[in-house]
């Protein structure tokens, strides 16, 4: 009896496996500079790595400094099978804490948002 229940449970998991992937979202896996990191020099770009491919037209970031001033950024690009959003930083960042607010639309049409901070220390 236990073998039958185990097999039924396994069959249910296998049957639901593909549909679980259909409901996946692009989640932020890592970023450079990293969340809560302290760096010594202004970054020339921000690299955000997601769990799945993105639609560039509907994905992007906004960076603000300690004084809530918006940081000037260049044009975003997708890299590494469209899972890395690379955004050039057009200005030199002074000492302070910066907030990165991101929004992403995965290639399967799901939207996600989030934010993180990093600090530039002289």
Automatic annotation (TrEMBL):
GO BP annotation list: copper ion transport; response to copper ion
Q: Which Pfam families match?
A: CopC
Domain of life, source organism: Bacteria
Q: Any idea where this protein resides?
A: Periplasm
Signal peptide span: 1-24
* A single GO molecular function term of this UniProt record: copper ion binding
Q: Name one GO cellular component term.
A: plasma membrane
Which residue range or ranges hold the CopC domain? Answer: 25-120
The alphabetical list of record keywords is: Copper, Metal-binding, Periplasm, Signal
User: What family does this belong to?
Assistant: Belongs to the CopC family.
Q: What is this protein called?
A: CopC domain-containing protein
Q: Which organism is it from?
A: Rhizobium leucaenae
